[in-house]
Design brief:
Elements (H helix, E strand, L loop, with lengths): L4 H22 L4 H8 L3 H8 L7 H10 L6 H13 L1 E3 H5 L3 H7 L1 H5 L3 E6 L10 H14 L7 H12 L8 E7 L10 H14 L5 E6 L13 E4 L3 E5 L3 E5 L2 H17 L3 H15 L1
Parallel strand pairs: 2-3, 3-4
Antiparallel strand pairs: 1-7, 2-5, 5-6, 6-7
Length: 283
């Protein structure tokens, strides 16, 4: 079973911590001695080596100076920055507002030619109607207890961003679990409009919409929602954070997982039949 996104992020942090610890030991320094050489309390050294605190670039420079390993500075700084950037806390993101999040992701979308999306819980943002998006973002505003609820503006921004599915130069392969069609995120009317739009979106030239039937024989278990931008970035949505995966080996794991999930999905008339069944169930 592949490591979870949270494990991958933590492992990246621990890799930096272990390299710093090895440099200290190779230099023959104790935790206390290194702390004295760096000019901080020894507890900070312990926190860094146990991956409880991420080292700053200046911390790494002091560490390498103390262990006479200045040639490791640049590599360690880059590795540490990459490890810390794997986690983007939702709370930090939403501080600037839900609309800001929608707008900030537009450049990455426009730079992507082949976009793969898997969702086990919601209709993906690029295929959402405004009413459905408003319900989703309203829940997000409530969950995060935002001081200013800009979910209406964010929903409009999301729909504006979603027009990219009508533009040339992009291909969208979307796979969702059938249970997504029955998750009552919105009231019946906007929910029906959303399901109806999936019938239209699935017929767009740039969109391949697959649905994994609940009755399908599973060859892979459901996963967290994730987005693959070409072969360069995977964005994974967790409860507490969004994890950005950039390591080629891990991206390859997500590509393989996506293909396994995609192979279980139905398309075309069979997918439309599942959507029509879910619309009937609303009534």
């Amino acid at each position: 079973m592949p490591a979870s996104p949270s494990s991958s992020a933590q492992a990246a942090r621990e890799a930096v911590a272990h390299r710093l610890r090895d440099l200290r030991k190779e230099a023959g320094l104790t935790v206390v001695q290194l702390a004295a050489a760096c000019g901080w309390h020894y507890s900070k050294t312990s926190r860094i080596e146990n991956a409880l605190t991420g080292p700053s670039a200046n911390d790494i420079r002091r560490w390498c100076a103390a262990t006479h390993t200045g040639d490791h500075v640049q590599d360690l700084v880059v590795q540490s920055i990459n490890a810390e950037s794997m986690y983007r806390q939702w709370r930090d993101q939403v501080r600037a507002g839900l609309r800001h999040i929608q707008e900030s992701r537009a450049p990455a979308l426009r730079a992507t030619e082949h976009f793969r999306i898997y969702s086990s819980s919601l209709v993906p943002g690029l295929l959402q109607t405004e009413g459905y998006a408003l319900a989703v973002l309203g829940i997000a505003a409530n969950v995060h207890d935002l001081p200013v609820d800009d979910s209406a503006e964010a929903a409009r921004s999301r729909i504006e961003r979603s027009r990219i599915v009508h533009e040339q130069g992009h291909q969208f392969v979307v796979v969702v679990e059938e249970s997504v069609l029955y998750c009552q995120i919105a009231r019946p009317e906007p929910m029906a409009a959303q399901l109806g739009y999936l019938l239209t979106a699935g017929a767009l030239p740039a969109v391949s919409l697959g649905i994994i039937p609940m009755a399908a024989r599973r060859t892979h278990w459901p996963e967290e929602t994730f987005h693959i931008y070409d072969d360069r970035l995977v964005s994974v949505e967790l409860v507490s954070a969004e994890v950005n995966v950039t390591q080629p080996g891990e991206i390859a794991q997500y590509l393989e997982t996506f293909e396994r999930l995609r192979s279980m999905a139905v398309y075309g008339a069979d997918a439309r039949a599942l959507i029509l069944r879910s619309i009937e169930a609303l009534h």
